[in-house]
Batch of 2 targets.
Target 1
Amino acid sequence: MHTRHMGIIDVVDLSRSFGGQQAVDDLTMSVDSESITGMIGPNGSGKTTTFNLITGLLQPDSGRVEFRGTDITGWKPYRIANEGLGRTFQQARVFDEMTLEENLRTVETPDDDVDEAVDRWLSFVELDDHRHHYAGNLSGGQQVLLGIARTLMLDPDLILLDEPFAGVNPGLVDDIAALLERLRTEEGKTVLVVDHEIDEISSLCDELVVLVDGHQLLKDEPSVVREDDRVRESYLGL
Ligand SMILES: Nc1ncnc2c1ncn2[C@@H]1O[C@H](COP(=O)(O)OP(=O)(O)OP(=O)(O)O)[C@@H](O)[C@H]1O
């Protein structure tokens, strides 16, 4: 029996070190279904390692990850993806020499109708005008959108985004933020987004998880997090 709060994802007592470096340190955190949750923290606080542990790219030294109550610790990445947990990477993983449409077709969608899935997600990210263009010719921000569309081809219930706003011009930052909001409201998806700029994601997120030294310092609404003394001192340098 679970007595604690159960989210769509529950990370419990998770740890992982690299040599002597404790990258994730007894981390317990959860993400509510159909929320947009931000994960912030200074460089090296364990954000990417946490994503890699959740998505099966890395194995933990101890602890577990539950997705909708199912223990997925130790599962292969493809099996976790098929279960409904998708992610993007810090560097958008797109094939420069392929058109946008071809990029989407490389993803094995669970959708019976591949053409329909391609149309649906290309138009969802508003890149249908570029369907036959090479991905290598897109701007950095458009490549982020294409990376999100590729992840959406898997029709995940939870999507993890690793710094989608990094290096993106300000106009597209707003477009990407609006897209994430639509993923929640129109598609009922849950979003967990990493950023190291608290300002960039405060207005977008319902809650922020603050990671410091591989563990959760606090999790609360952005307005509360911004006023927290520990965050102001240790992270914002205020
Ligand atoms: N493959 C690895 N080998 C050795 N050390 C690693 C490896 N991956 C991460 N680390 C170390 O673990 C710690 C956490 O790194 P991680 O990339 O998870 O942090 P982060 O919060 O995502 O940082 P950033 O904001 O810079 O992306 C860092 O000290 C990092 O050097």
Target 2
Amino acid sequence: MARFLVEDKVNELLDSMDGYDSMKLETTASKNDNDDENKPMKYPFQIQNNWKAMLCVANYFETNNQHLDWHSDKLTNIGPLPIIASLTFGATRVFRLKKTYDNNHTDSSTGIDGKGPKFSNHSTIYNIPLAHNMLIIMMPGCQEEYKHCVPTLTDSLHREHKQRQLKSENGIESGLGPVAGTKRFNLTFRMFHPKLANKSPTCPKCGKNMILRRMFKNAKTRGYYFWMCQSGYFGMNCDGFYYGKFDKINDFDDDSDVFTKDSRLASRWIADDDFAALKYLDDDWNGNGLKEEL
Ligand SMILES: O=C(O)CCC(=O)C(=O)O
Ligand SMILES: [Fe+2]
């Protein structure tokens, strides 16, 4: 039931949009020709069909101390530029968002996430209280550009902010649900990418599954999608790697791979306000030596 309501809400929102004007891509991907003028224009790598809630994951927070650390949701099965919808039940908790990179310190870091020098991020943190029955929809680009978390309630609000919340008239009172108390659960809904269900690569070195990620730390390479071995991701010694190749990902008659060793074929998406990364497009940066830039 919740699934159909969420699907309706997401598709209603998509239909009400004029399209994303913030489209910036490189390599062979270009703006999609859309048959129906009234339909919202989507990013080329994004699933083009109506959104369907195919996968549902539940999180349960029994007490105010239970939390979810900073992360962005994995793209492995849902593909680039996904839509993820999250429905809250019970207690109000704060959902936080911050940019994955710092616009003011864009070139200060190198290395695949967690492996390179420590990355400092001074980005603004957005606090969004999620009350019972609220639906938050993370639109395409949100997983690529932002991390999110649900901190413990004590970490969530500064004292004065908390006071204001207590006095507010919109029902967000100290986070407690009238029936649920401190208990909160949320359902997150995702859509599988039809191509990635059976075309995602296995590691060329050890044969394990690979994880789809996007480079973000260095402005020169930000936006390139890549597959890394899950062993490497979980700290083991495998550096299996491919670039993501998504230019044909929405062409269902096309059976070509979604990965490549050739950096010139690598797929990239850059946000329209990411001027640091866009500058390198203007400078005729052609992706050569891309891996060395990681
Ligand atoms: O609990 C929430 O609102 C967020 C859940 C979430 O980020 C996740 O399941 O990946
Ligand atoms: Fe998440």
